[in-house]
Amino acid sequence: MHALVSIYRSVFNMVERAGDWLLPLFARFTFAATLLLYFWNSGLTKLGDGVFGLFSPSIGAYSQIFPKQFEAVGYDASQLGFFHWVVVMAGTYAEFLLPLLIVIGLATRLAALGMIGFVIVQSLTDVYGHGATDEKTLGAWFDRFPDSVIMDQRLFWIFLLTYIVVKGAGVLSVDTLLRRRAQPALA
């Protein structure tokens, strides 16, 4: 029996050591494979036309981020203020920049923390701004149905991002490369 326990411990100690470098990489891969294009495509819908679209959000950007305020001004973006423009542009740039930082592993923990905040704001906007309160979209935890968009899917997103915040980017990342280059300078 002691031999069996010893084998069990040694095998799972190796698994745990391998997991320390493998799981952060796998978490970033999972993010890239499932959410990177989702956020980038969403960001693309918020950009205006042409080169100057980088600084001039589309009508869709305002309707996605400020649905009730945009409706209140008759869907005329010129009636919204500088604050609205700044929020729309920051949200749009965040949909491009934060996922990219996570995928390449640069400032990964901060980027993942920013994405958690983004997902929370996105979810609150969906519920309170767009009225996504139907059972299928909003869902509920502990209800035996694991397929709601907001409560179920986004909980998985936040768990994945929280894992990255806690564990970092892993061995194959720009963060690790920069840390290794900085170590001789510190010594």
Automatic annotation (TrEMBL):
Coiled coil: none annotated. It is a multi-pass membrane protein. The chain crosses the membrane at residues 21-40, 82-103, 110-129, 155-178. Keywords: Membrane, Transmembrane, Transmembrane helix. Its main location: membrane. GO terms for cellular component: membrane. It comes from the Bacteria. It is found in: Membrane. This is Putative oxidoreductase. It comes from Cribrihabitans marinus.
